[in-house]
Amino acid sequence: MTDNLSGIFPPLTTPFTEDELALDKLLRNLRKYERRELSGYVLFGSNGESAFLTREEKLQIISSVREHTKKILIAGTGLDSIKETISLTNEAAEKGADYALIITPSFFKSEMKHHTFLNYYSKVAESVMIPVIIYNVPKFTNVNIEPETIIELSVHPNIVGLKDSTENPSRISEIVSKVPKTFKVIVGTASVLYPGLTGGATGGILALANIAPDECIKMYNLFCEKKFNEVLELQNRMIPVNRAVTAKFGVAGLKAAMDMMGYFGGNPRLPLEPLNEAQLIELKMILKKASLIE
Amino acid sequence: MTDNLSGIFPPLTTPFTEDELALDKLLRNLRKYERRELSGYVLFGSNGESAFLTREEKLQIISSVREHTKKILIAGTGLDSIKETISLTNEAAEKGADYALIITPSFFKSEMKHHTFLNYYSKVAESVMIPVIIYNVPKFTNVNIEPETIIELSVHPNIVGLKDSTENPSRISEIVSKVPKTFKVIVGTASVLYPGLTGGATGGILALANIAPDECIKMYNLFCEKKFNEVLELQNRMIPVNRAVTAKFGVAGLKAAMDMMGYFGGNPRLPLEPLNEAQLIELKMILKKASLIE
Amino acid sequence: MTDNLSGIFPPLTTPFTEDELALDKLLRNLRKYERRELSGYVLFGSNGESAFLTREEKLQIISSVREHTKKILIAGTGLDSIKETISLTNEAAEKGADYALIITPSFFKSEMKHHTFLNYYSKVAESVMIPVIIYNVPKFTNVNIEPETIIELSVHPNIVGLKDSTENPSRISEIVSKVPKTFKVIVGTASVLYPGLTGGATGGILALANIAPDECIKMYNLFCEKKFNEVLELQNRMIPVNRAVTAKFGVAGLKAAMDMMGYFGGNPRLPLEPLNEAQLIELKMILKKASLIE
Amino acid sequence: MTDNLSGIFPPLTTPFTEDELALDKLLRNLRKYERRELSGYVLFGSNGESAFLTREEKLQIISSVREHTKKILIAGTGLDSIKETISLTNEAAEKGADYALIITPSFFKSEMKHHTFLNYYSKVAESVMIPVIIYNVPKFTNVNIEPETIIELSVHPNIVGLKDSTENPSRISEIVSKVPKTFKVIVGTASVLYPGLTGGATGGILALANIAPDECIKMYNLFCEKKFNEVLELQNRMIPVNRAVTAKFGVAGLKAAMDMMGYFGGNPRLPLEPLNEAQLIELKMILKKASLIE
Fold it and tell me: What's the pTM?
């Protein structure tokens, strides 16, 4: 059932022109991605600026993308409110989402522990029409869901996977060794794709795949062919790029790199700001050094 | 124009029965508060569990409360999305909210700096029909808005105040000394009400006022009468209670204390859990020690 | 016995020339401070760069300063190791230190809780020849000692005070209201001197007093004369300066400001670096704006 | 020259009886370790409670251990003070230490950046008689040294390696790919030994090796024999044990586990406290589940 949760999924960025949703640009990017061996797409991951999208915009995006691809669509529909999460997820399902990527709730940080996570995910999972993938991203939430909690949730019939965006792959191998085979763990950042796959992850949801989908796919394929040294070499080449489009320059950097690579990146939505000149130059140097541009 | 932003405002908790909004209980509490010398109410502060409420529930609450009071209503309508914030704020205004309490955006924590805050608050303020109060609460957002940013925003005609929920009153006195007289700073936690008022704050939005409104009002009045030693003494008596219903036991503790004090507290909404027996006993002891119950 | 723990104490910076201890410069500064109404001096506070001094250098400094002043000398002699703390404290006492300022141990951060603090401070206090002042400075230690722990320790006959370097004065008023009269609480940063005194603190150990001793003394005196508005006004004027020489520019900034104010500041010790040109200009502007220089 | 920096090194715990150094117990443990295929020992790692040892105790320990083994001895001699670090390192060298493990300085956290680290390590490395291994352990220091800084330092002739105790192996593979072959990177925690070795690390300094040296050695050997699935399986079995003796129960847990495994663990030094009954039972269960005890 969850066999399609493997391979590489770019968490698509959301294009804006004049700060308004630019669906045409999104579809233009999509056409390029469709020619690649990608397994599917994530809509409204963190870097999709889902925090800045309205509910209507989100639903519109799913509908449009669904019309133009037959690949797996994973929609980020998690919110702190269980009610809102259920209703958004079910609408997303109606528009064509295959899976719901549900970020850990995080407003009441100090209360987000084993039992509250069990409460939250069980309640959501039993009320939504599509399977749930847990999304752990402490960098944005300041909350971390422990392996033992994941393991307990993994037996729920409608909780089918985890996207782990920490850079600690020991979490992945530990979890994989203790969950049902049908529960898939997906690496959330390109810097640890290789050790993550080694630890039993079945794929990657990688911001980097927005700008370098071929390299991400190649790492995955090389791994499947057991050409481990080559995976590692490619990963090491990508690490500085990955850092630049995530930790260092954030969404603005990711979008600027897309522009440099021939996709439509554009500006992030307000209140975020685009990179300045000096940052653009530094970013270009990093892409050059990694041989992504000349 | 903002002269009514002074005195004590409880940030009302939201009652639930069987995890569903219980408006009748909210109104029952309101009737008791209406007999007090409170200046108004905050709806959907952090402890109002706004993170767990749907948009519809929020609007319903404003309408109901508006019908039953003539006091100032401040509605917490800030979200990361500027668009959603504007639309929710304007609907809240139509339902009767007098002010919008706008929490700092926080999803992209590392990008939330001077310029992004200026972008966010200017854009929101120029598009909403009611005046904006900035809400700084690093405990929940992991983001802190600097005094210099507040000072710059304070000249915007539709940004009229700040609720500061840090426990650092030097922020308050510094800000007060540099903003227009019409810009009001309100203390966000009872533990520093006295130094905050000393530094020029005009009132308090205090979780504690849900359970001990009279004591909060008394602190404020004693301060106005310049009976400083008495304010301090009362504040010291309240500090352990305040810590219990905030940092120590969270919303569940605040609601349990309301039950003990004759208000309707009830359970927090899922995924949060009510206090256990041992915690209830400890909480009761703390209330007793502070002479709030016998 | 602890009546002399009141008023203003500068935590002296340590001058270096060519990265070596420059005792003559220290004494030159001391002579200037001696003409002021300061209550005493702290040697090896955080900004005294005690982390970079050898044991021999520390003892040498105490001896020299002791020879040149009759005022109270408080020596920062706390280390993670209880044994080292006791032996250094007792040597410091022999050289003339009147009090030991003992920073919270912090290496094993997650273990530093109520009981470990009780173990540590009881053991140290019963083995040293001079009275102990607890030093809480989470900014440097990432550890915070709770009011209830301080309160429990305050009954120990050889633990006589607390320097609290948080910016949260509610800690101070709560602690003061629950400890013996002989236990003194001292404010650790100028930004909250006024609310701290209001809450019952008896004085301040203030980095700011290295560069603006007269202003610090004036704040204290105005407070004693109950000229509260004037204290507040002066404090507000000093807050940006205080921030510049602490959070913003660190020890390097404090020393640069000393140079600007006619004291010997010099460079911080390696590995720290002095301010660059742009930072020096910014710092000068801040001092000017506060009317400390022309 | 640094070829011996490979394989497994336990960072020896320091035994105490009645809170005093118990060298005989240390040597008893050493005899047991000597029968294993360990590459050497680390003295005064974090879990060696070096924060609680006096300089004299440290030197005594090196002398004693040196007398009883011909294996590599790595001594943790880093302190914030450059002067103290140099003098302690050189004394340690005289007593027989082969390498100095130098923890990142950390007192002035916000100043610990690229240039300060370059200043610190260059100065130390040029003044000590034995080669320096950089030690990065953010969990205890709240400071993180970036790959680019390590890479720059790796060309210094007397800086020969890194112990990285983060759980992020992408750091390791990136660093390995950019440093001279003679610069060795060593994994600092058993939970990521396998991905670390995969990324080019040459060995591990593992708290776990105090209680399960054979399992650690086996992981290393299996990796060398390219039996990757078996390494991973063994690593997954060890992860819960490793977490128990580090993050979960700290040094007290590590020592208690040593007692359960037939080594002398004993109590941690004051102010730390031994595990309580409930914790001991939980720990025993974890060791049983991992088949370390019956």
Answer: 0.96
